[in-house]
Amino acid sequence: MNLEQGLVGLARERPPSLMRRRILWGVLVLLVLALLAMLVWLASLYETAQVQGRVERDAAEATGDLRAAFMRNVQSLQALQANDPTPSQWHGDAASLLREHRELMRVEWRDADLRVHSFVDTPFRAPVVDRVRRSNQQSEVLLACSTARRFSGPAYGNSYFVPLSDGLGVEVMELCLPLESGGKPAGYLVATYSLQEVLEGLLGRQVTRNYEISFTEGDGTRLAMRGSTRRGSRVFTAQHLMDLPGTALVLRIDSWRGTPDLFPNVLTALVAAMAIALVSVLILLDRDMRRRLKAENALAEALAFRKAMEDSLVTGLRARDVLGHITYVNPAFCQMVGFSVDELLGHGMPAPYWPPEFIDEYQQRQAIRLAGNVPPREGYESVFMRKDGSRFPVLIIEAPLINAQGVQSGWMSAFLDISEQRRVAELSRASQERLQATARLATVGEMASLLSHELNQPLAAISGYATGSLNLLGEGSDLTRELGADLTVAMRCIAEQAERAGKVIRSVNDFVRRRDQVREALAPQLLLDAVLPLIHLQARKLSVRVQTQVEPNVPFAMCDRTMVEQVLLNLARNAMQAMDQPHIQDRVLLLRVRRLKGRERAKWLEFSVADVGAGITPEVQQQLFKPFFTTKAEGMGLGLSLCRTVVEQHGGALVFEPNVPQGTVFIFTLPASVVA
Ligand code: ADP
Predict the structure, then answer these.
(1) Ligand 1 center to residue 577 CA distance, Å?
(2) What is the dihedral of CA 271, 277, 282, 284, to 10 degrees?
(3) Fewest Cβ atoms closer than 10 Å to its Cβ: which of 348, 363, 482, 568?
C-alpha cells in the first residue's frame, strides 16, 4: 500500500478512529492529572508528618531541658544549706541565688515544724506571698514537704494560682527540700517557682522562638504560656508529661506554623513542575496531532481530487526520473498502450511500447532529452506500439518535472492518441479529392457542352453548304457529268460526316446535360457540414471567420448532393478570395439557409453565401457568368458558369447582389423536399 492509498484510506476511516483517539487522550490527561494530584497530596502528607515529628521531638527535648534545670536548681538550693550557714549568711546566698534564677519567686528556710525561719523574695517583682495569703498556701507546702520527708528528697507540690493586687496573677509551684543535720530532720527549704518564669528562663530561645509553649492541666487549661501566638490554619501540637517527684506537669508545644505549603520542598515543586510541563507537552502534542490530522485530511482530499482528475483524463500521462525509469502512469496511458501499471512502473529504456523498428531512433531522442534539452512546447509526433503489437500515432508534449525543492527530478509527458485525428484528416483529404475530381468532371462537361454549342453552328453550316453543293450538283448538270459521280459521293460524304459530327456532339451535350441525376432529400445542415471542413481549411489560411445560419425547422432540399456541394464550395471559395485584401480586417464568411416566404415560394429553399470583400464592379458584373471570364491570374473562369448550370438543372436560379455595407451575396434556390 503506498502513501497515496494510505491517506485516502485514512480519510475514509476517520470517524471511529477520531472518537477512539479522543477517548485515549481524555484517559491519558485524567491519569496525568490524578498522578499529579496524588503526588502533591503525598508530598503534603509527608511534610505534615515531618513537621509533627519535629514538634514531638522538640517537646521531648524541652521536657528534658526543664527536668535538668529543675535538678540543677535543687542542687543550687541544697548548696545554700551547706556548712550550716548563719541566718544572715543564708540570706545573702539566697538573695544572690534568686537574682540568678528569675524562675524562683521565694526561698524559705523552715524548721522541722514548717515554721518559717528565714525567707528571701525575688528582687524582680513584688512579693507574691504575704503573710496572710501564705497561710492559705500552707496546705500545698505541707503536702510537698510531707512528700519530701517521705521520699527523703526533694518533692514538688501541685501548682496553684496566686492572684496579685494588679488584677493579674501567677501560677506557682512549691518545691520542698528536707534538711538533715546529723542524720536527723533539721527543717525544710521551700522554694516557690513561677511557672511562667520557668518557661521564660529555663527554655532555650530556639524553642520559644518557634513555638507557643505552655504548661497545661489535664483538661487543657493553660497554666502558663510563652512564645508567639501566630497561627496558621492548622496548628501542630505535642504534649509531654513531665514527671516531677510529687507532681506532674504537662508541657504542651504548639507550632505556630500553618499547614505545609502545597509545594513544600524543591523536589516536590520540581516534580510538580515537570508534571505540569508534561501536561503542557501533552496539550501541545494534541494540538500538533490535530493540525497534522487536519493536514493529513486536506492532503488526502487533494490526493483523491488529483486521482479523480487523472482517472477522468483522456490524455495519457507518464512521468520518468532523470535516468529514464517510469515513475508514474495514469489509467488513460495504460489504456492507450494496453500495458498494466505494474508492467510499466520502474521500466527503463527501451520502453515496452516502443516499436522495435524505432528503438534506435527513440533511444537517441531520449539521450538528447536526458542530456537536458527541452523538447518543443507544442509537442512532437511519434508512433507507439500497443501490447497486441498494433502501432498508433501519438502526439507527445514533454516538460521538465520540478520537485518541491525546485530541482528537476525527471520528465512529465502528456500523450494524445492521434489515430482518430489522422483518420479524419485522411477522410477530408479523400473527400476533397473527390470534390475536385467532380469539379474537374463538371468543368469538362461544361466545356463539352460549350464546345458542342459552339461547334454546332459551323457543323450545321458545313452540312448546309454540303447539301447546297449537292443540290447545285443536281443530276443531269454539266458539272456532274464532268466531274463524274465521285464529287457527288464526296459531297454526300461531307454532309453525312458533318451530320454525324453534329449527332456526336449533341449526344455528348445530351450526355452532359442529362447525366444521371441522383436527387435525394438532404438536410441543408448536412450539405453545409460536408463542405465546412474544406472551407475551414482555406479560411484558416486567409484568416476568415466562417459563420453558418440555418433557419430552424428548415425543410430538406431535393438535390444532387455532389453538385450542390460543388456549388457551395465554389461560391465560398470566390467569397474568401474576394476578402483576401490587406485592408479588410474583419473577414467574415456567412453561409445561410432559409425557406422562402409565400405560398408558392415556400417550395423553395434559399442558400446564400455572403462576403465582406471588395464587391463586383459593373464591368465584371456583365461578364460574371461567362465561361472563361476571370479576373484572377490563376483563375479558369468556369466556376460561376458551372454553378449556374447546376442550380438551373435543379430548377432554381443563381443571382448575386451587393452585401451591406460591403461585399457581395450570391443567392441560389433549390427545391424543398416534400418528404421533409
Ligand atoms: P474564377 O474563380 O476561376 O475566376 P469564376 O467564374 O468563379 O472563376 O469567377 C469569375 C469572376 O467573378 C472572378 O474572377 C471574380 O472576379 C468574380 N467574382 C466571383 N465571385 C466574386 C465575389 N464574391 N466577389 C467579387 N468578385 C467575384
Answers:
(1) 8
(2) 180
(3) 482
d(CA 273, CA 374): 62
For the chain, what are the domain ranges?
51-255, 313-423, 443-516, 518-676
Look up residue 517 and give its amino acid.
Q
CB 69 within 8 A of CB 39: no
Ligand 1 geometric centre to CA of 609 (Å): 13
Cα(626) to ligand 1 centroid in Å equals 11
Atom of ligand 1 nearest to the CA of 627: 6
* Protein residue closest via CA to atom 8 of ligand 1: 637
The CATH class given to the 51-255 domain equals alpha beta
Calpha distance 578→588 (Å, rounded): 11
Per-residue model confidence as pLDDT tens digits over 312-335: 888 888 888 888 888 888 888 898
Q: Cβ–Cβ contacts within 10 Å for residue 579, how many?
A: 22
| Distance between Cα 299 and ligand 1 center (Å) | 65
Percent of the chain at pLDDT above 90?
Answer: 19
- Ligand 1 close to Cβ of residue 467 (< 6 A): no
Assess whether the C-beta atom of 129 lies below 6 angstroms from ligand 1.
no
Counting ligand 1 atoms within 8 A of each CB, the residue from 640, 644, 665, 668 with the most, and so the one to mutate, is 640
543's torsion region: left (phi>0), alpha (psi -120 to 50) or beta?
Answer: left
Determine if ligand 1 sits within 6 Å of the CB of residue 568: no
Cell of 183: 542524720
> Does 1.10.287 match the CATH number of domain 443-516?
yes
Measured in angstroms, how far is the CA atom of residue 28 from the centroid of ligand 1?
93
Helix (H) or strand (E) holding 416: strand 408-417
* pLDDT, tens only, 195-210: 888 888 888 777 777 7
* Fold (CATH) for 518-676: Heat Shock Protein 90 (3.30.565)
Sign of the dihedral defined by the CA atoms of residues 594, 595, 596, 597, in that order: negative
HSE-CB at 152 with a 13 A cutoff on CA atoms is: 5
Cα 507 to the center of its chain, rounded Å: 84
Answer whether 51-255 and 313-423 agree in fold: yes
Longest dimension (CA), the chain: 233
313-423 to CATH, choices 3.30.450.20, 3.40.50.300, 1.20.1640.10, 3.30.70.20: 3.30.450.20
DSSP assignment of 581-644, as one string? STT--S-EEEEEEEEPPSTTGGGEEEEEEE--S----HHHHHHTTSTT--SSSS--S-HHHHHH
How many A from CA of 118 to the centre of ligand 1?
169
Using pLDDT thresholds of 50, 70 and 90, give the confidence band for residue 133.
low
Choose the residue to mutate in 574, 579, 657 for probing ligand 1, maximizing ligand atoms within 8 Å of C-beta: 574
For residue 664, how far is its CA from the centre of ligand 1 (angstroms)?
A: 11
Provide the CA 250 distance to its chain's centre, in angstroms. 78
Q: Atom 10, ligand 1: which residue's CA is nearest?
A: 630
Per-residue pLDDT, 676: 41
Running DSSP on this structure, what letter comes out for residue 663?
Answer: S
